[in-house]
């Protein structure tokens, strides 16, 4: 058997498997996560903006801006990768669809750059809040954070403007072999600017690695590790100040400790957002480095390299579509706002009543204190047992378990009746002994 034929068969089989896997990733999986991610991100933005009426923390502006950029990135991923696979079965480089490629390609790079820079500013903000709180109080005001988000977003747009001039649509004309008629097909192609060696070295290698890929990734790793260490130290200090004792825990439940616990959970949520973004951004950074080392044409000619790029793009989509679940699990304020919004609607209120139906139980009981022989009641707080009395006159006493704390209301008639019966028993005993 010819080994050359076997090698060709293996190569074609590998290319076929890569093409099938890429179609599944770029088509169906990306479509599912893009649709759910866009819906949940828009809902998250609505909840964040709705909470602004009741006082918005400065950190919320970071999350709103980041969610906006990531929602735009999901829309671009759908137009650039998902929709062509669903319509044509593969990515297309010619036809009427390619007319949107220059705009989508530019805006896709803009959204990625904006997301990286917003996450980086968020990480720096958390680092200053934990490690240098005095500086953070001076620069962490809401008005300054708003201006910072606008400036960072505008710089991301300006930084990505040259991407628009890297590709263009050109008409490729030819003649039909059967009929001999001439036809022209629009095709996407690289411009001379993209093929210029100086432009590639300065913009794609130096500037992109300094401001988008390598340096931001390393800085995010270092700051995230530092923030994690500070959070662990804060937990250790809190345990030293408040050891696990019941009485001490009750004394430690002040407004300051409650606020510090809420802030600690908020910091954990933000660290998860940063770490999630960092994990998803590692593969695109490695892909850009490999493309810069071996060249764009050589890198994209390999089927495995194409699969590597598809997986890295899917990780970005997965990251952008999963922020809602981090907010709802770790954000107590966000979770409470979502609950209030759902309950405020008719369907949500009906569903909430259905879930709460039967969970609240009404227990009709009477708390009878232990009575001494002289008729004086002992302290009921020290009595470990709950005495139930069934009496026709004791119908007004109830124990309400729905509030979480057992609340006993005593009827004056019930109390007089029980005390009178005890006195009668004592008089009978005296008569018997006498």
TrEMBL record:
GO terms for cellular component: membrane. InterPro entries: GPCR-Ligand_Int, GPCR_Rhodpsn, GPCR_Rhodpsn_7TM. This is G-protein coupled receptors family 1 profile domain-containing protein. Keywords: Membrane, Transmembrane, Transmembrane helix. PANTHER family: FMRFAMIDE RECEPTOR-RELATED, G-PROTEIN COUPLED RECEPTORS FAMILY 1 PROFILE DOMAIN-CONTAINING PROTEIN. SUPFAM superfamilies: Family A G protein-coupled receptor-like. It is found in: Membrane. Residues 40-327 form the G-protein coupled receptors family 1 profile domain. The chain crosses the membrane at residues 28-49, 61-88, 100-124, 145-165, 202-223, 268-287, 307-330. GO terms for molecular function: G protein-coupled receptor activity. Its main location: membrane.
């Amino acid at each position: 058997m010819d080994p050359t034929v076997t090698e060709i068969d293996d190569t074609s089989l590998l290319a076929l498997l890569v093409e099938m896997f890429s179609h599944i990733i770029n088509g169906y999986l990306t479509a599912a996560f893009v649709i759910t991610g866009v819906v949940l991100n828009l809902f998250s933005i609505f909840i964040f903006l709705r909470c602004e009426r009741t006082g918005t923390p400065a950190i919320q502006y970071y999350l709103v801006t980041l969610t906006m950029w990531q929602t735009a990135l999901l829309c671009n991923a759908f137009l650039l990768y998902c929709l062509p696979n669903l319509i044509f079965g593969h990515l297309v480089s010619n036809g009427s669809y390619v007319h949107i490629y220059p705009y989508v390609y530019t805006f896709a790079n803009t959204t990625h750059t904006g997301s990286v820079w917003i996450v980086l500013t968020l990480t720096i903000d958390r680092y200053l809040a934990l490690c240098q709180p005095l500086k953070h109080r001076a620069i962490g005001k809401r008005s300054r954070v708003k201006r910072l988000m606008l400036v960072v977003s505008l710089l991301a747009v300006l930084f990505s403007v040259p991407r628009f001039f890297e590709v263009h649509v050109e008409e490729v004309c030819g003649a039909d072999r059967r009929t001999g008629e001439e036809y022209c097909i629009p095709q996407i192609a690289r411009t001379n600017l993209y093929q210029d060696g100086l432009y590639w070295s300065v913009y794609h290698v130096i500037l992109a690695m300094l401001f988008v890929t390598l340096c931001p990734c390393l800085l995010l790793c270092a700051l995230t590790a530092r923030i994690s260490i500070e959070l662990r130290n804060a937990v250790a200090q809190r345990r030293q100040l408040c050891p696990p004792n019941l009485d001490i825990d009750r004394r430690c439940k002040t407004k300051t400790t409650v606020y510090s616990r809420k802030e600690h959970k908020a910091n954990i949520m933000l660290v998860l957002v940063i770490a999630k973004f960092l994990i998803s951004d590692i593969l695109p950074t490695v892909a850009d480095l490999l493309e810069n080392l071996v060249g764009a044409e050589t890198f994209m000619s390999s089927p495995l390299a194409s699969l590597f790029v598809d997986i890295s793009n899917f990780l970005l989509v997965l990251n952008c579509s999963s922020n809602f679940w981090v907010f709802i699990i770790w954000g107590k304020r966000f979770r409470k706002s979502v609950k209030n919004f759902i309950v405020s609607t008719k369907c949500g209120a009906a569903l909430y009543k259905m879930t709460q139906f039967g969970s609240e139980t009404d227990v009709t009981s009477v708390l009878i204190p232990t009575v001494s022989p002289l008729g004086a009641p002992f302290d009921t707080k020290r009595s470990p047992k709950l005495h139930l009395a069934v009496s026709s006159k004791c119908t007004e006493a109830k124990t309400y378990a729905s509030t979480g704390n057992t609340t006993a209301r005593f009827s004056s008639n019930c109390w007089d009746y029980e005390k009178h019966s005890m006195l009668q028993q004592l008089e009978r005993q005296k008569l018997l002994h006498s």
